[in-house]
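Before the break, one more example. Copy the sequence into your notebook; we will annotate it together after we see the structure.
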Amino acid sequence: MAIRVWEVLDASDTARDAYLRVLSRPTLRQVAQNAICLLLWLDTTMGFDVLTDVASMASIDDTLTRVVYEANALCSYVLHGHYDALPPPYDEGFSSITALCGGGRLVDYWFFRFHRDLVARGIAMIRDGVARLVFDDNLYEMMRRFEEDCNSFLIPNPEPAPELMAPFVLTTTTPPEDSRTVFVSFPESNPLTSEEILDYFELTLRYGRCIERVGTERPCARRSAKHGVIVFRSVAQRREVMMGEPAAVFRVDGRDMWVQPYRPPC
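Here is what the structure looks like once it is written out:
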């Protein structure tokens, strides 16, 4: 059964509230939309309740200013490879976004650098799909009028505008690989290698040939590797390894490895 535009609008109330809160600062519309696209990706695919947090912030709150600044910069970097017209963020740590996402166990500045292509696909899909409706003032005005008509005894059988009843159609999709992907992070002080991760799941845990590929960060002069990615051979194998959990910690040779499945936008 096709999903209607009004159903998407109804399910996106929190995103709309966050968008209006960002605009109330005031903020340039394009900056606000970039920020919300990034936050929508974090909220819907990573499970962080960032939109509720942003919607509840005061317009004059310095934290909101930093979140918008950092989210816009990250969105521009992920999609275009630069920080748009803004100067570089306050610091490479993107501390406000990191704080909203649990303090950096998984999501930090280096997370976006390592997973840039995957994040870009997801944000582009959100931008061209759900976000397009979240940013549409006319659709929300139609929705408001329909709700008023429903609550009025003067209109016995109100009908929504045709635009609200239109099917919601996604114009872009993510590749099947994304549904088989998990993010991993491990201690910078004692990082894991791709081979150690592969052997742990296939040999130590005896799942057999369940992994298509493993990738890890390359260490640089300033820091050790922290982030990695695993692509399983099938969605079922990923589900089996995760045992249905939204995230899990595995102990690999005395080192904790945080593993979280990616949930592509749909």
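The chain has a mean pLDDT of 92. Strands lie at 181-185, 211-216, 227-232, 248-252, 255-261. Try to locate both features in your own notes.
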